[in-house]
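Handout, section 3.2

Students often ask what a structure token actually looks like in practice. Rather than define it abstractly, here is a full record for Essential MCU regulator, mitochondrial. The first block is the sequence as you would receive it.
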Amino acid sequence: MRARPKTDRYGVWKALGIALPFIGLGGYISMKGAALLEEHDIFVIEEED
């Protein structure tokens, strides 16, 4: 039988520590990009009554 693979003690926390800031950064960049497009009348959401 093979020996058990070595596990990282804080693997989940490390993954969350990398993923969450970049998800937030991506959301921020998307929000600013959408505002820029709307400001230059490239993409404007029309409200339906």
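Discussion prompt for tutorial groups: The chain has a mean pLDDT of 91. How would you have guessed this from the sequence alone?
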